[in-house]
Amino acid sequence: MSTAIVWFRRDLRLSDNPALSAALANHERILPVYIHAPEEEASWQSGAAGRWWLHHGLKDLSEQLLGRLLFRRGGSRETLQDLVAESGATAVYWNRLYEPAAVRRDTQVKQALRDAGIKVVSSNAALLFEPWEVQNRQGGAYRVFTPFWKRLLEFGLPKAGPDAAVRGGQLLAPKTLAGMRRTALDELGLMPEIAWYQGIADAWHPTRVGAEARLDEFLATGLRHYAHGRDLPDKDQVSRLSPYLHFGQLGPREIVAACRSGGHAAAEFLRQLGWREFAHHLLFHFPHTADAPLNERFAGFPWREDGAAMLAWQRGLTGIPLVDAGMRQLWETGWMHNRVRMIAASFLTKNLLLPWETGARWFWDTLVDADLASNSLGWQWVAGCGADAAPYFRVFNPVIQGEKFDPLGSYVRHWVPELAQLPSKWIHRPWEAPDSVLGEAGVVLGEDYPRPIVDLKASRQRALDVWARVK
Fold first, then answer.
1. 3-class state of residue 152 by DSSP
2. What is the mean pLDDT of the chain?
3. pLDDT value at residue 175
């Protein structure tokens, strides 16, 4: 009986899983494996919130595989070679990853296994198209989103593949597994020693069932409002599917299939899925952009150093209500509304003139959907130094943004409760409110809530002046 190893990474699902389906179709027995090797992620090892999610995602996948998902800790190449010897496997299957460190690692692993006479099959489960399949008219990589998205639509968005019919008889038998060295999930050290994650646990269900339920709920209640509602942070009209996509508990082709009858509203939502695709396209073709700006003019940009301002931003204590609301939502739930992400990022890079890399690192550690491609694209877009970037002179005014997208202040009242009693007129600019209004609301600026750590108008002009010198 031929045996194949299926190496799970960020494809924690049985549906639309090409590697798993191919292994099941071509071998009598499979050994599903997850290898924990954070050192191979180079400088972008998973953040704390992401590790929490991964722990629960692996637990869920193991249960779906009848408890026969084998965990190991160690180098991927060495571990797979050991598992081949232990199991007698003649082939190894996996789904591709596209981060620079993962590409280097997988290339080395593939070569080593093939040199040993082991069949290796890699597939695409994470994207609609491979990054090298989408080229501009000159045969190069796209750097602007709109023509990239039009090209994808010309290709036609692909449908989901079949579910993998995993039968207990095809999984390596418990008796065989019992004779192999096994690492317990808890031994991987993904869960934090201090239980700071209760807010995240209350907000999310990091399982395949949770992914399906969230998709169904969004299609039923949020999709028809998406075009307008996605900009309203106090409304539950966005998908919140990003962490499920990142960890592969839901595939992009599955989302496309589910949205096919949604009409114009679905088209607006799928365009956002296209941004995710564009982010991976950029990172694959310009791998340095995880750590450096795509626009080389920003390589020597005179960013400031201000530890106190950075800490205030991280804690949601900048004195700018919409920014603080977003940063507190992030800390409590591991997620932030995308409109507010742009505003908080603009405040950090434009008003505070702090490096986009420091913001990207904070998001990386605190977001449950932290994705290297999307994180890099988003921060460089806001900072004005990436592909299809917002011009550097575009500075989001958090007061105007708040009054436009959170006009009643509902979002701010929820996440910044010390301001909850302020009238809507002043909720986004409490420093301008009359003393009598502040008094009636029980707010003492500088005590109950901080005064702004920077003047919005003056700091915007400072940013423009710096940009003019760099340009």
1. helix
2. 94
3. 67
Identify the structural domains of the chain with CATH numbers, from first to last: 1-126 (3.40.50.620), 127-160+197-285 (1.25.40.80), 296-470 (1.10.579.10)
Under the banding of pLDDT at 50, 70 and 90, the label for residue 153 is very high
Q: How many helices (H) and strands (E) does the chain have?
A: 21, 5
Strand partners of residue 4: 30, 91
Angle among Cα 218, 222, 226 to the nearest 5 degrees reads 120
Average pLDDT over residues 55-81: 96
Supply the DSSP string of 365-395, one letter for each residue.
HH-TT--HHHHHHHHHHHHT-STTPPPTT--
Taking alpha carbons only, the member of 161, 105, 94 closest to residue 128 is 161
Q: What is the dihedral of CA 235, 159, 211, 250, to 10 degrees?
A: -120
Question: What residues pair up with 35 in beta bridges, in sequence order?
Answer: 72
Residue written as tokens 């180098």?
Answer: 75
How many residues make up the chain in this entry? 471
Sheet of 91-95: strand order equals 70-73, 29-36, 3-8, 91-95, 119-123
Task: Report the distance separating Cα 276 and Cα 145, nearest Å.
Answer: 10
Contact 254, 157 (CB under 8 A): no
pLDDT score at 223: 93
DSSP string, 411-425: HHHHH-GGGTTS-TT
CA 429, 430, 435, 438 torsion-angle sign? positive
> Which amino acid would we find at residue 122?
S
Tens digits of residue pLDDT in 154-187: 999 998 877 777 776 788 777 677 778 889 999 9
- The enclosing H or E element of 18 equals helix 18-26
DSSP states of 31-58? EEEEEE-GGGGTT----HHHHHHHHHHH
The pairs formed by 401-404 with CB atoms below 8 angstroms and a separation of 24 or more are 401/322, 401/339, 401/343, 402/321, 402/322, 402/427, 402/428, 403/428
The C-alpha angle 296, 300, 302, rounded to 5 degrees, equals 135
